[in-house]
Design a protein that fits this description.
254 residues, alpha/beta, 9 helices
Length: 254
């Protein structure tokens, strides 16, 4: 019953709906406590369901599939950020204020060719730039030996290639569609989450884990009505290093 209550909340984003559906006549404080416990339990196991693949067969399959989809060689994942809106926090309100004038958590994610998350960072304030999130994340602090594709909001690295002129590439559309499907499946993420930033980050992690589990179980989209395109408003930033590698890469493959 506890898991069902939490899933219902993730799917609707409404405590009132969960309370009304409860056959055990649970109170709102009780259901709120249940959601917190289930979310914490899921978040603790996130590394079991969201992890960058190390198996060469899996990586090679991703390279082939990304090339078939986007004609971009050697890519094993696509990176981008999306904002999850929150209510006005009691502390450090200005730090959560994003470019769209909303309070939010800026979530960094990497997806594979199947639309599964293989890396998620769900703890950064809405005002944090995408490039900074990457730079301070575990992914950005070490050379991973694999190639990611990102938009022009990111610096160009040997392992992260960004577009020359067009900020919206086929591969970027892939992860934007993943964000849309994720928020469609869990409507909690589509609206304003009326909880503390800390609890919100736990909910985001839980929903990311469940997204992967749904794909693993071949659970298709229940609602085919699209919500608005999830585009993160990045501005081009200057990255002096590694452009030569990108130029050489383009000459070899394009």
């Amino acid at each position: 019953l506890q898991v069902l209550c939490a899933l219902r909340f993730y799917a609707t984003g409404s405590l009132q709906i969960v309370v009304g559906d409860s056959t055990a006549a649970l109170s709102q404080p009780t259901i709120s406590k249940i959601i917190r416990q289930v979310s914490l339990g899921l978040a603790k196991r996130i590394n079991e369901y969201i992890k960058y693949p190390t198996n060469q067969h899996v990586l090679n399959e991703s390279r082939v599939k990304f090339y078939e989809m986007a004609k971009f060689p050697n890519v094993t994942g696509v990176i981008d950020c999306t904002h999850i809106f929150i209510q006005k926090p009691n502390k450090h309100e200005y730090a959560y204020f994003d470019r769209s004038s909303n309070h939010s958590i800026n979530v960094q994610a990497v997806c594979d060719n199947k639309g599964k998350f293989i890396d998620v960072v769900a703890k950064c304030l809405g005002s944090t730039h995408d490039a900074r999130i990457l730079r301070e994340s575990k992914l950005g602090k070490k050379f991973i030996g694999r190639t990611l594709n990102g938009d022009s909001g990111y610096p160009c690295f040997l392992w992260l290639l960004t577009p020359f002129l067009n900020p919206t590439t086929v591969s970027q559309v892939i992860i934007e569609q993943v964000f849309v499907k994720w928020k469609r499946r869990f409507l909690l993420l589509h609206g304003e989450i009326r909880m503390t930033p800390e609890r919100t980050c736990t909910l985001i992690a839980a929903c990311a884990e469940l997204h992967n589990l749904a794909i693993q179980l071949n659970d298709g989209d229940m609602d085919k009505n699209p919500i608005e395109n999830d585009e993160n408003d990045n501005k081009d930033i200057v990255a002096e290093n590694n452009f030569q590698f990108r130029d050489d890469f383009a000459l070899r493959h394009f």
